[in-house]
Specification:
The chain has 153 residues and is mainly alpha-helical. 65% of the residues lie in helices and 7% in strands. A two-stranded antiparallel ribbon has the order 1-2. The longest helix is centred in the C-terminal third of the chain and has 38 residues, at 115-152. It is elongated and about 65 Å long. Belongs to the BlaI transcriptional regulatory family. It holds the Pfam family Penicillinase_R. Keywords: DNA-binding, Transcription, Transcription regulation.
Length: 153
């Protein structure tokens, strides 16, 4: 099954995301590698089935093992950051009514944060505010200039 370039793959289940974590960390893995590195015990056939499902969903591709033999190696087709962002957006839309700040506030209230982690978050927010402020300024400038040229013209 091939995926249309514009079609988004279905969301990952918990078990599928565990397999993907192994692939993202290792970059390439055999079924045996996946079984060995999963956080909980699974049978070889279960791992193989999950890899095949992930391939059908468009998250994974396989190729013959470079050393030959019957084994295949599997690799992720999408970077972890892209998949994470898509899943977070889905979570925000489904459980928080599209309000990302509700998720962030919930995380701030429920998680234990070190001072360094909070400072890093603060720095990221300040950087975003600065970028947003600059974007707002640049979007206002052309209108101001256009208005003043009309007054003088």
């Amino acid at each position: 099954m091939s995926k249309d370039a514009t079609e988004k793959p279905p969301m990952l289940t918990r078990a599928e995301s565990e397999v993907m974590q192994v692939l993202w960390k290792r970059e390439v893995a055999t079924v045996h590698d996946v079984v060995e590195h999963l956080p909980r015990p699974v049978a070889y056939t279960t791992a193989l089935t999950m890899l095949r499902i992930l391939e059908q969903k468009g998250y994974v591709r396989h190729e013959p093992h470079p050393d030959g033999g019957r084994a295949h190696v599997y690799r992720a087709t999408a970077p972890v950051s892209k998949v994470q962002r898509r899943h977070v957006r889905d979570l925000v839309d489904r459980l928080f009514g599209g309000r990302a700040e509700s998720l962030v506030v919930g995380l701030l209230e429920d998680e234990t944060w070190t001072r360094d982690e909070l400072e890093a978050l603060k720095s990221e927010i300040e950087s975003r505010l600065k970028t947003e402020g600059q974007a707002a300024e640049s979007s206002r400038e052309p209108r101001v200039r256009a208005k003043s040229s009309k007054q003088h013209g």
